[in-house]
Amino acid sequence: MPSGLRILRGEDVYGKEGRTGCSRSQWYRHIAEGRAPPGFMISPQARGWLEHDIDAWIIARVEKGGIDKAPPATPEPYASMVGHNGGPPMKRRRGRPRKNATPPGVFGGPAEGGA
Predict the structure, then answer these.
(1) If you placed Cys at 105, which of 16, 44, 76, 111 could pair as Cys (CB 3.0 to 4.6 Å)?
(2) Where is the composition biased (Gly residues) (predicted)?
């Protein structure tokens, strides 16, 4: 282009060979959150970005020190292993689950000490 502007297509911006190092889904997530330049439609099915916009975005990320990430959520310890009615953690059985998982004496299961 005579003006020195270059239009980058998706494969030049994201992906393995892209300038940003983002995957396609990650790049569009940045756009949806307002953290990346949205680009413009160069045809009904193709989006393009100006090269200097992408370069400015990369430089801004380097100066900022990367992406703002929320700290990972800290789950309560053993939250998934709490027993019935908030009791102590249940032991997990090894192997495949049983076909009839009802405890003895509940809902027609064999009762303990049965005849």
Answers:
(1) 111
(2) 106-115
* Per-residue model confidence as pLDDT tens digits over 40-92: 999 999 999 999 999 999 898 888 876 666 666 665 555 555 555 666 666 66
Dihedral of CA atoms 70, 33, 46, 22 in degrees, nearest 10, equals -20
**Per-residue confidence band for 29, with pLDDT thresholds at 50, 70 and 90:** very high
| Calpha distance 73→58 (Å, rounded) | 28
CA distance 33 to 54: 16
* Cα–Cα distance for residue pair 107/100, rounded to 1 Å: 11
Which residue's structure tokens are 């892209």? 18
SS3 70: coil
- Exposure of 27 by Cβ count < 10 A (0-12 exposed, 13-18 middle, 19+ buried)? buried
Looking up tokens 């297509």 gives 9
Distances (CA, A) of 44 to 41, 47, 64: 7, 8, 34
Domain segments of the chain as ranges: 10-64
